[in-house]
Amino acid sequence: MTAGENRFLSIERVSKVFWSDRGRVPVIDDVSLAVEEGEFVVFLGPSGCGKTTLMRMVGGLETPSAGRILLEGEVVTGPSREKGMVFQSYSSFPWLTVFENVRFGLKYRTDLSAARKDEIARHYLDLVGLAAYGDFHINRISGGMRQRVAIARTLAANPDILLMDEPFGALDAQARERLQVQLLRIRHAERKTVIFVTHDVDEAIFLADRIIVFSARPARIIRDIRVGDRLAGERTLETRDSQDFLALRREILAIIRDEAQRSEDLMVAGGMG
After folding, report:
1. Which of 211, 167, 214 is nearest to 186 (CA)?
2. 159 CA to centre of own chain
3. Which of 95, 128, 244, 268 has the maximal Cβ count within 10 Å?
4. What is the pLDDT of residues 112-121, one digit of tens each?
5. 0.85 surpassed by pTM
């Protein structure tokens, strides 16, 4: 058994380089990370730092330039049903109803009967609080509800890991807050392993078991924070007002400010400022 095969998800010395008209563009720099089954891990860092690229490599949508990623002991070589993804855009099918959108997640499950697919779709519609909207077409519901449809459709496919790329970024503050609370409820009901990408510190603290803080590009891990050791008890909206939450928020913001200053100093020293 090689290193990493005893972990649910293992990212082993992964680097990523893109090429542009200006030449070589390093995006990820020698990142190693292990994620246990059932963990909710948030990738936090400045916009454009490479955290989404790393998540896309976990999902098989990008290939590492160096290193490897293993999911349940198998090297990730491309997309598969084991990896469910939810993006910032709603990615719904406007010609289908809400129910049909969720059921679409089961389209290629040949091991299930039509009746069983209907049952699963109804279960996840109920889980995300949209059971009453099953017959509505997507263009008749709000953006927040569409994102719940996308989450339900992804969960219906029963992935081993849920990858979420700033899924609430396009929503207004109230809708975002409601969906954060609902995602915690869904996560506790399903016990899925989740990787969640955001640049919102409050969102990261509220949702995460662990926060992986990345540097400016090329992304390196600068802190691995176990939020569960710092915030006791069930997370509620009132948690955001607690002293423990606010202290952790100040700590993370200081880390990010220091990294931003370091990055700016390096740019000036290199004649890029």
Report:
1. 167
2. 13
3. 128
4. 999 999 999 9
5. yes
- Provide the pLDDT for residue 4: 46
Label the pairing between strands 193-198 and 40-44: parallel
What CA–CA distance (Å, rounded) separates 62 from 73? 19
Mean pLDDT for all residues in the chain: 89
Nearest to 204 by CA among 232, 231, 175, 172: 231
